Amino acid sequence: MLLRLFICLCLGSFVPAIFAQTLTFCYEDKELAPSYMGTGLHVPDTRPGVSIEVLQMMEQKIDGLSIDFIREPWQRCLHDMKRNKVDAVIASYREERAAFMVYPTTQHGELNTQLALNKFGRCIVGDKQFIKALASSKQSFSLAIPNGYSSAKNITDERFIKVDTLSQLDAYELVSKRVVDGTIGLCMINEKVVKAFPFAKRLEAYHPPFDTSYGFLTYSKQFFKNNEILAKELWEHLAEFPFAQVYMEYLGFEHQQIDSIIIDPEGSK
To answer: Fewest C-beta atoms under 10 Å: which of 44, 52, 129, 216?
Structure first.
């Protein structure tokens, strides 16, 4: 309730949309705290995640905008975007995705990071023994990588043997049971160090991040072509929202449930 009040105060009043339009937003059916909470095809009625709450508020504030939220495996969301079966996802920039997604760009056609929703850093994650060995040993290590996580392509250390898993939670359970040595996890949000991953009280992140990326609301080619004015308006409003601040508040509230914690060392801001 407090978060929703905070969001309402931040959003203020918006200019009405020019015409009514439904946007179908697809997001992963696995929990990715703090952006998406819960698992399965159902969108939680309460505390569904920061990204979902903010989009729900945008829906209320922009006259004529209606958003249908659907949950699918991440690869299916991407598959449906390619075929214009869904209208939008939140995704980092990848060259291969630009072939079927529309990202915000500048007048010169360059990626406009000023319209990004967030800036995420991802680290190798494991127990203290693994992190210590990682810093000092040349031996090989096994890493559980959830299907569809393109950021894993940026792991160039040849010591790692990658093991595919169906979900982030599956990957962390393998680490917890010591079936594999480590996995990957969200360790930085908008320059602030966090431990936003399962079992964070028992696991550590190896810094610096191996991957830093911006998250954008991206549109299907067809939706953007038919609704360019509305699409750009939504980008602009989302860019004004203080995501970093709300992410921190969300993690602070949810950490007991998702076992994630916030760290604020000197110089992390």
So the answer is: 129
